[in-house]
C-alpha cells in the first residue's frame, strides 16, 4: 500500500510552479504564493494577491479534503475561478501534492 510522498509531490508541483511559488516570502505569479497554505482560510494566503470573487465566496479552510477536491477540478469547485488547470485525476497524485504542500507549511523547516 502506497502512502503520500512529498518528494513525488514536489515533482508534480512542477506543473503548478508555472503560476505558483512556494517559498517563504516569495512573490505571487499568475497565482498566489502557496507557502503555508494548508489549514489557512481559502483565498487568504497571500495578502497581495487579487483572489477572484468565486474563490473568496468558496469560504472554508484548505484542509486536506478541501485541497483534494480543488486539485481534482478547480473550475467545478469554484466556477468563475481564473485558475486554468484541468486538475489531477489520480487521487494518489493529489495526495502527493498535498503532502508536499504540508511540507511547506508554517512551523516546518522542510523544503523537500
Please render the helix and strand layout as text.
Blueprint: H1 6-12, H2 53-58, H3 64-72, H4 74-77, H5 91-103
Helix pairs in contact: 1-5, 3-5
Number of strands: 0
CATH fourth-tier homologous superfamily = Cytochrome c-like domain
Q: What separation lies between the terminal Cα atoms?
A: 22 Å
Structural class: mainly alpha
- State mean pLDDT (0 to 100 scale): 92
The total tally of domains equals 1
- Bulk shape: globular
Helix content: 25-40%
Largest sheet: none
Provide a count of the helices.
Answer: 5
How would you describe this protein?
With 112 residues, this protein is mostly helical. The protein has a single domain (6-103), classed as Orthogonal Bundle (Cytochrome Bc1 Complex, Chain D, domain 2), CATH 1.10.760. Helices cover 35% and strands 0% of the residues. The chain has helices at residues 6-12, 53-58, 64-72, 74-77, 91-103. Helix 1 crosses helix 5.
Amino acid at each position: 500500500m502506497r502512502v503520500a510522498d512529498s518528494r513525488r509531490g514536489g515533482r508534480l508541483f512542477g506543473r503548478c510552479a508555472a503560476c505558483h511559488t512556494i517559498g517563504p516570502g516569495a512573490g505571487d505569479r499568475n497565482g498566489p504564493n502557496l507557502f503555508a497554505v494548508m489549514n489557512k482560510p481559502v483565498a487568504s494566503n497571500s495578502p497581495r494577491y487579487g483572489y477572484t470573487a468565486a474563490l473568496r465566496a468558496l469560504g472554508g479552510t484548505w484542509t486536506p479534503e478541501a485541497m483534494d477536491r480543488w486539485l481534482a477540478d478547480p473550475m467545478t469547485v469554484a466556477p468563475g475561478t481564473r485558475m486554468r488547470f484541468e486538475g489531477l485525476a489520480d487521487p494518489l497524485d493529489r495526495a502527493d501534492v498535498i503532502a508536499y504542500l504540508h511540507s511547506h507549511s508554517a512551523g516546518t523547516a522542510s523544503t523537500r
